[in-house]
Each structure stands twice: as structure tokens, then as C-alpha cells.
Amino acid sequence: MDAKVTAIVLAAGAGTRMRSERAKVLHELGGRSMLGHALAAVRELGVDRRVIVVGHQRDQVETAATALDPDALIAVQHERKGTGDAVRAGLDALPDGTDPGTVLITYGDVPLLAADTLGAVLAEHRSGSRAVTVLSAEVGDPTGYGRILRDEHGAVTAIREHKDASEAERSVREINSGILAVDGAFLDRALDRLTPQNAQGELYLTDIVGFAVADGLPVGAHVLEDVWQTEGVNDRAQLARLARELNDRITRHWMLAGVTIIDPATTWIDSDVTLAPDVTIRPGTQLLGATTVAGGATIGPDTTLRNVEIGQGATVERAHGSDAVIAAGATVGPFAYLRPGTELGANGKIGAFVETKNAQIGEGAKVPHLSYIGDAEIGEGSNIGAGTITANYDGERKHRTVIGRHAKTGSDNVFVAPVEIGDGAFTGAGTIVREDIPPGALAVSAGGQRIMDGWVARRRPGSVAHEAAENAAQQEENSQ
Ligand code: UD1
Ligand code: CA
Q1: In testing the pocket of ligand 1, which one of 24, 25, 77, 83 has its CB within 8 Å of the most ligand atoms?
Q2: What CATH number belongs to 258-352?
């Protein structure tokens, strides 16, 4: 962006109708807070100077704002005296003597507003050399919004707040989205002229439009067809509506980019997820956070993945995972739980009813059934028997299990960590591994099997088991 622009993001409002301990702008949709969406839009547009106006629930909002955008300036609005006062606080936060250039005012609670819409407002503002350009929209029910008033030639003359509007003015369906571009020098002077002589006793930012018209300065409105982008959130029902709409936009975007989504209605994809062409997503899948999926991978059904990296051609079915890596060609599930630090190598397998945590599972290695693998390393090509537990916790500390390459461990093993199993080693079924196993060795710990003949006849006489045993003995005798 060449010409100077300052973005002021208003986020000082109370948000009472959310009925929440959490500040309104910090409620989330698409994996980001509303404030996160607002900041992403101005950043994507390339606005270098950003001011976030905080006030209500200030500590929470300020902490989040600083984390989201460390380069932004924070302005504090001490009393909630209206949008004009909030913008004044924003301007005052600029270092003394800064020329703000064009000021772009946006709201922290309008999450669907896109960067290219802001770009269009700025472009129209500049090409018309205007003092003010408002982003407006025609809506079905304009109740509550400020109305765009126009003269008989269609020129914008003022914005009238709903509570101050006459019956005739209330019939206008073109509303002020609240987003506007203003010449910085004009804004600075206009804000000084605001008075709270209105129905709400507030300093209305919107009054500056009337001032510009009175001064003979050019003003105008950029009318947006896509009304969703101008919609603010006041309660959780609206938040859910916008979250659904955002999700529809995200799933549509990925489908047009070559991703097969079998059921967009039950597929939820966060804003920061990236998908390659020819990924397939089955119903009931949530891809969250910074999850990335490479081409040819199939995810779902009924899978939730947060911050998971999935390689080319991998398959993940009915699984729950976070902060994990699934390499190319690997298979996961059904019914697998991948906790943070799981790294499954290429063509590896984490099968049914397997839980993993902080586990590096090598290329082609397999944990196919009913196991817990935590704080462990499994070398390439090794196969872990069904029902294996890495006993990683001694009640005080966590310990590691290290299994080498091409090892084959039996069913129902317990690895009592810390323990190391060498390359190419084997273990028998039911082995409790308490000591290291050298490469190429077989370890068994289950005792030899003892047979006590006639135990059922002596200890369970008359039972159905006794009867079954007697019948078997009889048949054996008859066959001889
Ligand atoms: C405002 C506009 C209205 C527009 C509507 C769109 C004014 C006077 N009115 O009305 O024309 O149709 O938005 O949603 O501008 N805020 C502060 N400090 C304040 C007051 C508000 O930071 O003292 C912030 C809020 O957090 C919010 C935004 O400004 O993000 C709008 O405030 P809100 O009270 O929702 O304005 P409305 O009365 O809805
Ligand atoms: Ca509002």
C-alpha cells in the first residue's frame, strides 16, 4: 500500500448481550477471535499502521490484541462515550506529529469483512478525493442501524442513527455498516465538533458525514452487495449464524480449489487451515487451527484434527488428533487418539483404539490395535503387538520407551519405561519388559503354562462348565 493509511479498529464496546465473562470481540468463529478476523483483514490489505481501541474488559482485550498483532498501537477509551470518542482515542494514540493519512475505521465485532472490500472502499475514497467514504448495504430489516440519507440526486447527505430518525428516515433500507474511510486531517477537526445532543447522549462518529456535506466536501458511500460482510455480532445466536456462513465460505473456497468435501454441512474448517487439491473430506470432520493436508489424503468420517500436518495420500478415519504429524501414505484409525507430539512416519499405521502421545513412530512402523504409546520412539518397520502399553509414568516422572528398527513385539506387552528394545528384537505374548532387550534377542517374561487336570469337576461340580467338560470327555471316549 503506497499512500499513507491508518487503520483504527474499535473494540471498546461492552457486548452485554453475549452474557459472557469473555469480552465480545474475543469470542471465536472459524478458529479465530472476532478481533483476530478484523486484524487479519487490515493486515492482509497491507495497512502498516494499526490502532486498536480498547476499553470494556480492557485487560483481556489488550492482552489478546497484543498477542494477535504485536506491532499495533493500543489506545484506551476510558469512558464509553460513543464511536466518535472511541476514534478520538485512536487518533490520540498516534505519536505526536504523525500524519495519519487516510483513516480506515473498522469494528472488532464484524468478522466477515474481507480485505478486498476494505480495499474497494479505499480505492473509491481516493478516486473521488473524498473527505468521507462510508461502507453501506441495503438490508431487509434496517432496525437499529444508522441510515444513509441521500438527496433527490442520490448524493449522500448524512447518517441518521435509528433512535434519532423520523418515520420517513426509518423507512430507508440503506444502512451504515460502521466501516468508513476518512481524510485524517478532516477527521481530526470534525471530531472536535461532535456534541452528545442526540437520543443516546453519545458522540456519534457518524455526524462527521453531515459536517463534510455542510463544508462542501465530497462524501460518498460504497454500497456492498454482500451484506454478510457488514454484519456485526451482538449475541451468541448471531455468532453461530456468522460462524455457519463463514464455514460455508471456507468450504466453498476449498471445493473450488479442488478439494472434495462430501458433506459441507457437517464439515468445519478453520480460517487458517490449508488443503491441497485432491484432498477428500468425509462427513462429520473438523479441521482446526493450523492444520495442513497434502494432496490425495482422505480425512474422515467423524474426525477432529487441530494443528495436525497430514502428508500426501495419508488416510485418517474416525480419529481425534492435535499437534501431531502424519506423514505421507500413513493410515490412522478408525478410533484413534493422537495427542500432542505424535509423529507418524511415512506409510506407518496407528490403528483401531490406539492412543499416542509424544511418540515418534518410524517409517512403515505399525501400532495396529488397542494400545497406549506415550513418551516413546519406535524405529522404522517395527510392528507392535495388539494390546501394548508403554508404562511411562511411575507416579512422579515420565520415562521413555525406545524401540529399535524392525522389532516385532508380541500381543499384550507392557514396556515399563525407561526401557530400550534393540533393533530386530522380538518379544513373546504377555511379556512385561522391565529391562533392556539387546538387538536380535527374544524376550519372554510370562511363566510356563500349568495344567491342573479335573479342576472343574472338583471345584465346580454340577456347573454348566462341568457338564460341557463331561460331554467332551464322553465324546473323546466314544471316538476311540
Ligand atoms: C454504529 C453506528 C451505526 C451503524 C452501526 C453498525 C454510530 C454512532 N453508529 O451503531 O450508524 O449502523 O454501528 O453496526 O457510529 N465502540 C467503542 N466505543 C464506544 C462505542 C462503541 O469502541 O464508546 C465500538 C463498539 O465496540 C463496536 C462499534 O464501536 O465495535 C460500534 O458500536 P455500537 O455500540 O455497536 O454502535 P451502534 O449503536 O450499533
Ligand atoms: Ca452494533
Answers
A1: 83
A2: 2.160.10.10
